[in-house]
């Protein structure tokens, strides 16, 4: 495979999950890069929530580009603001919500993983 370059406006926009109303730009999809399942820019409108869920064999690495919201991991909440990064390991129950009055822009990469380590919040 050779280097590829894309514009945000040239990649498909799909639903983040059923019933959430959250849209994501699929920058890179499964199969394009070894072990990478997706590279995404998700746009949460005010008050939108990606409901609590866990992945059996996927690690997700996140970066908050803009806005404000809350990350809840295994029942513990963390504030989200621009510049914050974190990752979620397999089996960790996690939910992301934008603030009621502010949108939230999240960049994330999902990779195939078998590790079970704790998440970390950085700002």
TrEMBL record:
Keyword Metal-binding attached: yes
Domain Cupin type-2: 42-109
Keyword terms of this UniProt record: Metal-binding
Pfam families recorded: Cupin_2
Stated name of the protein: Cupin type-2 domain-containing protein
